[in-house]
Structures are given as structure tokens and as C-alpha cells.
Amino acid sequence: MAKQIKLRRRGKGGTLYIVRDVPVRYRSVESRAEIWVNLNTDDSTLAQQKAPGVWSDLIAGWEAKLDGNTADAEKAFEAAQRLAKARGYRWLTTGDVAKLPRHELLERLEAVRMPNGKADMQEAAAVLGGMKEPPITVNRALELYWELAAENTRGMSEDQVRRWKNPRVKAITNFVNVVGNKVLANITRDDMLDFRDHWSKRLAKEGMSPGSANKDIGYVESILRLVEEKKRLGTVLPFGKLTFREDDDERKIPPFSEWWIKTKLLASDAIAALNDEARDVVLAMVNTGMRPSEIVGLLPQHIHLDGPVPYVEIKAEGKKTKNKPSRRAVPLVGVSLAAMKRHPVGFPTYRFKDRISDTANKFLRENGLLESEDHTLYSLRHAFEDRMLAAKIDERIRRDLMGHSLGGRQRYGDGAPLATVRKLLAKIAH
To answer: What whole-number distance in Å separates Cα of residue 396 and Cα of residue 188?
Structure first.
């Protein structure tokens, strides 16, 4: 049971007060040695119920004041916002405070008055909006973003975090190179249009896809918006209608044809010169459609080869999966089963590293094993999906195997048994 806070009454039948010595820790920010706090009730039971919360708010206010005693403008600003909240007020700028109804303005003025009649400057900065908004530049916003967006990297491996950060660093670097390291509040619509024009020229000159530009623009927007929101800067960022139109055909990676897989990729010695781990990652994709990152992310405990139905599990263990449907079990057949038998503990050379696609694609390209310039290693995944469709395999089974959602529908049950799925895949296996 929580210890009761001692209360005192002022006058016979008067209201009850918390009366306590100010803790030593807060003597530098509280001039009173003893503090009386009116609980605005003469009911002892109600007063005891209110007292812990009121005392907690006092502590929060003192802590905010301590944090506000700093030369760090950002920390001082955040402390002022917390102090206002601890005092029961919404943070407002000085201009917004001045626009409040007269009774609310007077209430705030009274709240910052000390017993000697003077104003407490820290209280005034917080409650009356006297603390100035800190100038956060674009580069500083990126530094703040890593902490503010930390929940997005929860469960990621070290390499996944690196790959998550790299395009965002590149986008901000590109933006700063075009418009400069400006304070967020000073970014104009012309700045954003200049950044778009920069990308428009690159697309024309370098033959890049619109998707590259759109990613850069999207990363800049999401980073600056999150910092503005979380830091409550009250800045209107001039985004909107900046991305380039993408042709659906340009974004689609085509599947390998059945003929190409049989006569080229699986031809004798076609990929024999590829190192053994990379070679078997390619073969493991053929009859599973797994993403390359999913295959190299398999841990020994995810690979089950001894039971009546050999299969692998894709789990968020040691890494983060693309999404919840990506966590699944995939039966092994044909060349994919043989590849996994050669690697019963997985692929440690490539595990949690962003290298397998580059290695495999370079080999396939240099050895004439890509069916067109648009084909990549990922084309095996798309080919697997097309083969299942041609074999009229049930849509739920196809989506489960590919790690796709059910198109907005609720996923009920565990899906088809692995033995059933394996029989279906055996009919289309290489």
C-alpha cells in the first residue's frame, strides 16, 4: 500500500494542503524551503486521492526546470514544454498566449507569480511561451531522426539498420547539396521545387528511373515531417505534388520463362563457377520463391530436413521480416531441397549482409544468364508465382507461400498442411 502524504488544513474546516519540505535536489530551482499546495477540497478521502498526482506534477515541474538550466537550446525548449504540461497548461508561443481569452491569460500570469510578487522566469518561459523555438537545420533534423524513428528499426539486424539508414543519409545529403543546410522553418516551396528540378535533370541526363527520384523526395519529406511533429515546432513544411509519375511497366521485374530456367539457369555447369553458397541460394529460390534476404537469413533452427516434409521457416529472429505475412513455412522440393541439404545450417557467408543479390546478379549478367536487361535474381521469385498460377494452385496457398497479405481480408486458420502444399509444388518443381 502506498504511503499516505501528510496533509494540513488551513483554518477550522478549511481546505486541505500538501505541506512538505522541498527536496534538496530541487532547491536550486525552487526558492521556497517549504511548500504548501492547495488541494481545493476539505474532504480528507478525496484529498488523499488527489495528493500523489499533485505531488508528482510538482516533481515533474522541478525536473523540467533542472533540465532547462542548460545551454543546449533544444533541451531547454523541450524542458519548457514539459514544465508547461506539468503545470497543467498546453504549450503555446508568446503570440498564441496573447490571443487567449482574458480569463485564461490572467490565469497563466497568476500561475508564474512567486510569493514575493515577482515572476519566476522559468515558469514564465514555459507557461507564457517565452522560450524561443530552437533553430533545427536539415542536417540536425537527420541526427534527431535516428532517435525519433528508433521504433522502425526494432528487431533489425545490424546490417538491416545500416541498409535502412543509407538511403536516408543519401537523400538528405542530396537535398542539402541543392538547397543548403537550411533551418526547417526557412525551407520554402521554391527550395522543394529546386530539389525536384535537380532530379528532373538527373533523370534526363543519367537515364535513371523516376522511382529513384521519388524515393529521395519521399525520404526527405518523411524525415523532416517526423522531426517537425515530434519536436512540435509548429512549422508548415512546403511539401506536396513533388514526385514523378512512374510507369507500372518500368517498375515491374519480369519473371524468367520456364524455357530459360530449364535450358539456361539449370543447364549443366551454368552456375557452377558461382561460389557454392551463392549458387545454392539461387537454386533454393527456384522452387520456393523466397526472397534472397530470407534465404540467407535462415538460422540452423529454421531449417528442417529430417521429417517427412522437409521445409524451412522464415522468422523474425536475428533480423526483421518485411511484414507479418512474410513469417511462414515453405516446403522444399526439387533442386531447392537439394540446395538446402548441402547447407543444413544456412548460408553464414551472406547471413544478415546485403551482398547476395549483388553477387548473384553480377555473375548472371556477366555470364549471359539474364533473359533481358530487366531481369534480375528476383525474377526467379516472380517466375515461381507465375508457375503456381499456371498450375491453378489455390490463391490462399499462393499468397501464404509468397509471404503476401490476403488483400485486406482477415487471415483465418493456419492454411493448407505442409504435406498438401509439398505435393502441389512437386508437380511444378525443377
So the answer is: 48
